Structures are given as C-alpha cells and as structure tokens.
Amino acid sequence: MKRLFIKQQVFSFRDRFFVKDETEADVYYVEGEVLTLGKKLRVYDKADQEVLYIEQKLWRFLPEFDLYAKDNHVATVKKEFTFLKNNYQILGKNWFIDGSVTAHEYVIRDNESKVIADISKKWFSWGDSYEIIIYNDEQVDVLLGIVIAIDCVISQARAGNSSS
C-alpha cells in the first residue's frame, strides 16, 4: 500500500508540482510542457527517471488522455457524456470509478469490484490536498497518472467556468 498526496489545483499556474508521501517527502514530481496544444505531462520519480507520460488527445468532444510508461501505451482516461454524474472510462485496464470525482471522493475498482485506489480530499498544514491510497503496489505509477489526468480535466472545467 502506498499513500500519496497532491496539492489541490496543481495545474492552475504551475508547470511543475510535487507528489508527496505521508511524511511530506517528495516522491514524484510532474512537469507540464508549455506552449503545446493540449496538456502534456511527464511524471518523474525521486531518481529523476520518467515513469509516466500523459498526453491529452486533441479534437475530442470530451477530454481524453493517453498514459504511456516507457513508450508503451498503458491506459486511456476518457470522460463520458452524462448529465448528472462525472463518469470516466479507463480504457486498457479493466478498472472503473465509483464516487464523486469533482469532490475528490472516489475509488478506482478492478473488474472484480476490488478497490485498488482510494482518492479523498484532505486538509493538512501544507494546504488543501487530496490523498491517494493505492492498494496495488504494481500499478502505482499508472494509478497516479489516472488521478492526475482526472484532476487535469476538473481543473480545465473550473477554469472554463470561471472565465464565463
């Protein structure tokens, strides 16, 4: 089990942010590419090795992100069209999401309905954050990437709503 924390609204004005563990130590950092069409994010571990690349697909009706590990496509996070709920598909994995994504209160389950990650909003001395508890140690990087992609969709939607 791995417990990680991401500061709320990390995509607002930064192109780099850190993912921390329960001791507030940096365990990953994420860098966004500037001046690109769509979001392009790279996730690095403590040894400065790229563990994941996240790229927004362009020209889609609803947001869609591809995740790559070592140049191999590992998953696609796709927002579904619904009126009352924020639903996402996780293609390439037999996983699905339950709960309120916009409130950062949701779980990711495998095809047997077993919880493999639990995401919830937390308040700590270092700022509003959300906590990610990952129960599948073999999929930490991919699950972290899925949460980052979903947060990116939420941040873009909030930015779009505030500009109108």
What is this structure, in a nutshell?
This protein has 164 residues and is mainly beta. The chain is 14% helix and 47% strand. The chain has one domain: LURP1-related (Porin).
Compile the SSE list and pairings.
Elements: E1 2-7, E2 16-20, E3 26-32, E4 40-45, E5 50-56, E6 64-69, E7 72-79, E8 88-91, E9 96-100, E10 105-109, E11 115-124, E12 127-134, H1 140-162
Antiparallel strand pairs: 1-2, 1-12, 2-3, 3-4, 4-5, 5-6, 6-7, 7-8, 9-10, 10-11, 11-12
Q: How many discrete structural domains?
A: 1
Rg (C-alpha, Å)? 15 Å
Fourth-level CATH superfamily: LURP1-related
How far is the N terminus from the C terminus? 42 Å
**Which structural class is indicated by helix and strand composition?**
mainly beta
Protein name: LURP-one-related/scramblase family protein
Organism: Alkalibacterium iburiense
Family: Belongs to the LOR family.
InterPro entries: LOR, LOR_sf, Tubby-like_C
